[in-house]
Design goal:
By secondary structure, this protein is an alpha+beta fold. It has helices spanning 11-22, 42-47, 66-77, 87-117, 123-140, 154-164, 177-187, and strands spanning 2-6, 27-31, 55-58, 61-64. The protein has seven helices and four strands. β3 and β4 (61-64) form a beta hairpin. The chain is globular. The model has no long low-confidence stretch (mean pLDDT 97). Residues 1-81 form the GST N-terminal domain.
Length: 198
């Protein structure tokens, strides 16, 4: 049985829960007590020496980092639709995973951290970055239902949570109709599951 070590309110944990559900993979969810410091315990650090969630354990395979887990699940349990192996198609999909780990993280995710969890950071800069990536994303989605390849891929799963949760960080989506339509599309996928805030 696959085990997912996660936190309920973490968008990065949610990406993995969503992917597992979209692929119809049975798994056990193990909540990690961040406030209690469980992620820094010797036992957890054996799974992930960085002390971060989520972590996926599949038999003898341990995968850390939400995007690495998405890639693992897509290749191990999915098919070419979720993560193609053809070079150009793969590069398009992977480009959005890096966007999720950089621009989306430093924008909507950081703004949400500040407002929802009172994590001290430069919220003005995070908000500016959030609106910058929202503008780019909305323009990219003009005339598209999905980020790439005319179908849902791990790119959509990677970018979706912190974009859809932007209002938690006091970042409005009202001016971005293409993003709003894309969010609705994702919520209609067979196997979609939500999280608090969605």
């Amino acid at each position: 049985m696959i085990k997912l070590y996660h936190v309920e309110l973490s968008g990065n944990s949610y990406k993995v829960r969503l992917m597992l559900s979209l692929l119809g993979i049975k798994h056990e969810q193990v909540l990690v007590d961040l406030r209690g410091g469980e992620h820094k315990s010797p036992q957890f650090l054996k799974l992930n020496p960085f002390g971060q969630i989520p972590v996926l354990v599949d038999g003898d395979v341990v995968v850390r980092d939400s995007h690495a887990i998405l890639v693992y699940l897509a290749r191990r349990y999915g098919d070419e639709d979720w993560l193609p192996t053809e070079a150009q198609s793969m590069s398009k999909v992977m480009g959005w995973l890096f966007t999720a780990a950089n621009e989306i993280r430093q924008g909507p995710e950081f703004a949400r951290r500040y407002h929802l969890f009172q994590i001290p950071l430069d919220v003005q800069l995070a908000t500016q970055r959030a609106y910058a990536i929202l503008k780019i994303l909305d323009e990219h989605l003009t005339g598209r239902q999905w980020l790439e390849l005319n179908r849902p891929t791990v790119a959509d799963v990677a970018c979706f949570p912190y974009i859809a949760l932007a209002p938690d960080g006091k970042v409005s989506l009202d001016a971005y109709p293409n993003i709003i339509a894309w969010i609705k599309q994702i919520k209609q996928l067979p196997g979609y599951v939500g999280m608090p805030g969605l």
